[in-house]
Structures
1.
Amino acid sequence: MPEEPIAVAMSGGVDSSTVAALLVRQGRRVVGLTMQLWNQRRFPQLGTGGGTGRCCSLDDVYDARRVAEQIGIPYYVVNFEEQFEERVVKPFVEDYLAGRTPIPCTLCNNYIKFDRFLEMADAAGAQQIATGHYARVRYSAEAGRYQMLRAVDGSKDQTYFLFGLTQAQLARTMFPLGEMTKPEVRELARSMDLAVAAKGDSQEICFIPNGDYAAFLSAYLEENGAEARRTHGAIVTTDGRTVGEHAGVHHFTVGQRRGLGIATGEPLYVIATDPETQRVVVGGNQDLLRSRLYARDVNWVSVADAGTGLRAQVKIRNKHAAAPATIRRAGDPCRVEVEFDDPQRAVTPGQAAVFYDGDLVLGGGWIE
Amino acid sequence: MQYVYFDHNATTPVDARVLETVVACLDRTFGNASSIHYFGQAAKQRLEQARRQVAALIQASPAEVIFSSGGTESDNMAVLGAVRARTGARHVITTAIEHPAVLAACSQLEREGVEVTRVPVNGSGVVEADSIRRALRPDTVLVSVMHANNELGTIQPIAEIAEIAREAAVLFHVDGVQALGKIPVDVRALGIDFYSVSGHKLYAPKGVGALYARKGTRTAALTFGGHHERDRRPGTENVPGIAGFGAAAELAAGHLAADAARIASLRDRLERAVLDRIPQTGVNGGGVPRTPNTTNIYFDGIDGEALVIALDLRGFAVSTGSACSSGAVTPSHVLTAIGLRPERARASIRFSLGISNTAEQVDALVNALEASVTHLRRISVHA
């Protein structure tokens, strides 16, 4: 066979389409693969989501195929629905029921997009893969490892969802869009006449139409015959007063203000949820502040470990502005204590804490 | 890169002589076969010639051949049409390894209040006639069994089942899509009521098929319109496609025996070489009569989908048998029905040969298979 191909993960969106077209323009041999992860017709009662925030729809596969045809590359749809359900959707549901607020995209990256997909790339004879993620990877001889950096376009940076990538995965991965801004990518797509150049960005979680988590959870549990569990409980204040009722802890996430259905003088926020007692604890804004958190299953990316303590900026949700903190080992090497210089609002179990040093992604873990 | 085709059960290339017929018909015989004038009559003549050609291949009388858009429509016309024509119809028998065109039509009947029994098959992929007999009820109106299975090539005991159906005065439909052109078909000797066929499985174009409906049988209409095809299938006839089907049927009638022997020897060469050279492989549904062109082989420890892609990139077209363009979610219902565990069903590949395949192509395929399977087994960590 001629020169070794690069496998491009094509979702049918503008980013991954541009990656494929760009590599072809650079004279590389490319194989396009679309991962079929979820059957969008599985829960018709949830509606169509208005066409946004969807993946794996027939329209997306159509678009990806059309781009592949346009740029003249072999193209295949590979079905990972079973693995996606097992490694992403099920843990997502279990996390929610356990009172955590999970991030399925990170699980998908760790176990599907950079794991099963690499195997499929192997099958296609491709050592390297490329995706449309906004992030940068480089090999540092000094550090003796692959390092990940924030994308040049800070507003599109996706490193928060990519902290779980191992060195072996990073060694095979290219993020050609990491150096570009989104407007530049669109312009490039237009200049190459890609049919998807004007297509909207995907939003929210791909398998949940309209971002309605609670409706998805209900539909999923009903399908699995598991809705027998108690779904309502009390809303209590930090000092133990019952102030209302709710229809299930999975409707609430730490820091949430709306949807409590309580009329009080001062604004109330969700401070914590307890699936055992089905209690939702509410309080004032100051009750949400925390200066310390523990993260488990830490993956170190650009550095080998926390050493004797690490100064970093730590991001605790995707939209959070990373805050200065000190990171220390807490027990085993995969668990750390993060102590913020200033208390942070709404530290949410189940979300990721990702550690940065400027643009460098040091690593990250799951908030306990 | 050279591309070699080993997926003839999915579809076949159009034979050069068939192509000539179709093009000539598109070019000159454009009339509507229902029209009174010269142009209409020419089209009608072409249509009836094709009907005789297709009827001759299955030993039917031309009046018993209804042209359709293909195998799926023919299966639906027979299954839905025959059952709906019987008021108070309660029960239908089919098998676990039918094509979705039959299985989904049966599911539709269930929604209409008809009970359906799907009889299992044995480990070789053959339905035992006795299990059809045991499934019969006083209110059974139809039995539907395929002649040859699309994934395994296994040939079903149609004559035996026909006798059982006849004794019970139950209609018998046979999906012959994967048999026509591969093995001799004699609907009279088989003693059946309906037989579905499709053009593109025997070197005719897609979009044309036929249903043999034995004289005296009735079917309820599925679509409504004109009086075409003896009131059984309305719509202006696809004369060029039908003419091509006729030409392909005539070619098959002439060459079937010789082609079958040659293709079977290539198939056996492929099987032998794979089993000899690649460890942990085996034939699914082997050891029973099969269509001469089909083999289904498992390669333990690999993902069939990955192997199909790897082979395609080396220029060889094969299929997992259960393939659809957006990938199969569950392992093939046919392989599951013969008792394969899911991992082995997912590790299985269907090879279906055709008239243009050569021994050199088979040898090249085996080389590519050996290389790809070795590579996939080396990298596989999840299988």
Note: The longest helix of chain B spans residues 239-277.
2.
Amino acid sequence: MTAGNAAGNRAGHNARQIDGPPGDQIAVRRSGRRGSWILLTLWLAPLIFLGAFYFYPLAGILSASFARREGNLLSPFLAALTSTSVRSIFAFTVYQAVLSTLLTLLIGLPGAYLIARYDFPGKALLRALTGVPFVLPTLVVGAAFTALLGPAGWINQALMRLFHLSQPPIDFMYTLAAILLAHIFYNTTIVLRMVGDFWSHLDPRLGQAAEMLGATPMQVLRKVTLPLLAPAVAAAALLVFIFDFTSFGVILVLGGPRFATLEVEIYNQTVSLFNLPLAAVLALIQLFFTLLLTIVYTRLAARVTRPLSLRPQRFTLRRLTTIRQRLLAAAYIGLLVLLLVAPLIALAARSVTRVESSTRLPPGQSDQGITGATAQRGGFTLDYYRELNINRRQSLFFTPPATAIGISLLYASATVLMSLALGIPAAWALARSETSWANRAMDPLLMLPLGTSAVTLGLGFIITLSHPPLNMIGSPWLVPLAHTLVAFPFVVRSLTPALRSIRPRLRQAAAVLGANPLRVFRSIDLPLAGRAVLVAATFAFTISLGEFGATAVLARPEYPTVPVAIYRLLGQPGALNYGQALALSTILMAVAMTSMLVIERMRIADVGEF
Amino acid sequence: MLNVSDIFKSFEQKQALAGVSFEVHAGEILAVLGPSGCGKSTLLSIIAGLEEADHGEVAWDGVSLSGIPPYRRGFGLMFQDFALFPHLNVFDNVAFGLRMQHLPIEEIPAQVREALELAGLPGFELRDVNTLSGGEQQRVALARALAPRPRLLMLDEPLGALDRNLRERLVLDLRDILRRSRQTAIYVTHDQEEAFTLADRLVVMNAGKIEQIGTPEQIYGRPASLFAARFLGFTNLIPGRALSIQPAAAVVETAIGRLYVPLSENSLQPGQAVTVLLRPDGVQPGNDNSGQLQGTLTEAVFRGNITRATVLIQGVSLVFDFHSHWVLPAIGQAIHLSFDPAQALQLFNEISP
């Protein structure tokens, strides 16, 4: 889902480009034939990278899916699609995605309206807060919800104590509700940002004009506002749907053995059952589906840029005036904050609270080890954090969880370097011209990795990079390469508008005002591009830290990343392991939130919003 | 008939309207003229019901409109940048208000056609509004506002977004259309020429207050305040000091000499600081009249019917519009001017801040 979230950021940003600086005429004019060749040179490294680590693994998946060749080319797919188990997995995947999307829209749209049309105290804080799920790793979210609503979570514990129950009254773990709630947690922010942002720039005078023509507020909504918002709503809904459709970590932790999406099944077939051909077939089915949706999404995103007289936000904002407005807004904001913040606070609090006794069921095949736990709470403790450094099992293969932090940081740094090295020339090329054929050909290629699930990428690596010509199995570079693939499109998307905003005219203006070329670079290019590079680097870093899908498939037992270590700890019995999982999750959450703060501070208003 | 009485409105700490009252009679075109930020758009929003006044009342035919939402007031409003619905074509834009009135469906096309013909866009029904030129959009917006036959049409700088040439052409069309449909209208603008061309009466506004109400002739002929005079484009405003006060005139000491200013009423104190307006069209070369001035011609710009001349008098640069048939001395030469004080001079007992 981290991949998905990266895509979310980018997509949200895409919708925002509508208010970005218009393409500069000088920049456009520059796109001659010669210009296209320069662009192609810039594209060279990214092309080689995508070829070796995206298209080649994808081709591997394709050929693996034909490995059990019994009939024609399509027979493995037909076999998979006619098998009842695959069909029910597919049906469930679509079902939960549709349900999650509808619920997310239901919660997100009123918020989009509130943020778009009203100014209220704490709005900036709310905006920053809703950005937090963007960067939270799925496993942290899974752990957070268990800390709030799981059998050993705060709410069940409180209810048990209050009513003297012997069993946790709320059966939350491994239910559809758990999955839906986590998906809402993740994706509400997409609706808030994409729709809210579009809405906030929609000229309120269109609605006023309709009112002056006799339309009641309901008629204004139905006949003017919603039709104009439709592309933004549809694009947000599609994006949310794609994320829910390829959801992995959330389903693994909160869905348990009872629920599997295609993504989880690909993972199971790859890692547990080692049935690569079936995994490949499932991956292709999923890829086909998500690419189809991605294409529809891009079309819709392009339609969002229909010629609307969009207005700067400051002209469209009003204040909450009546008591009724204020109460409604307060209730909604309260609900949103509860949904977004309660699990995170529960997580942090639970990670420093001692659990004295606990009984657990014997761990099942994919039991996460938290079923049926009954526990009484003790006081404050930092034991779980201390434990992270201790290898209790004296096992060679078991690395203390603290090691995972070092590994994660190392991988994240490598990801930042690689994705910047590839992303900067690509963004530069894109920023140089919007009309060149080279860019028009390359732009959709960037979309492809975004439409590909992380587990599928991992599977592709396993299939193709385990033998010549590119034998990399066992290489420590495998995981950062996968992370780079996930982060790369996003790095490009966050750099391009900033580079594009450095219009030649700005440099000319500086030069005319007496700045020499060095001074121009220092005063114009560096401040504008430098911050964008920092933002892109922070995103790459955060994506790598939280990435779970591809890492789960690729990580070697002795080199676990933090999410992998969390997943392992959640899968082991005992309060100590659970506490350590929450402690690690809390650390990861803190890092992710700090990154978000950096991003919020560093981004240049109206240049690169995400 | 619209009655606006004693409207106050402030945003945060800023006073936007401070006691505005006027009325609009049936079939009348009233122009509200003022610089940007004088509160004229806020005034429209309050009349439309889009904003609520802090104090004061808007009434139609004696019935208060307070508490009545915009969509039940039966007024039309045309926005500066037109606010055409981008997702609807021309027909659906113009038909929008008719549909809101639940007009029988079969009557709508005829009414839309009529409105478009009135606005000068026959046959534009199926065009995409996003592909129209600025002038065409303006006409669609006008047709849309006229189609439901509002009892009052408000136009908020409807030509402001257009370039000068187009504006000059459209303002005449607009006047023709409004007059032909006998539309009661309020026309908000910062352009006095537009206001003079269109309006039966004018309201001159400044800083949330009304400076003057009257016909274009009254206002141009006798601006009620220094602000009004300056806003109407008068530049020959000469500061001075009242010397002797007579029942129907005052002698004012100014930099260009003593001026004898006839007054209809006289509330001046001797020694009071005043400003004298010397109308640019009230002065002619020669010495036929009682008012006499001596100066140096520094510039003469031929403008067809008139020649705009700049004359330096006692170190003060003044501008005059002479009929072009006058023969002027060469630039840099002395020029003798004369004027009829009753027509060329006006006294304001205020000085520019």
Note: Chain A is about 70% helix and 5% strand.
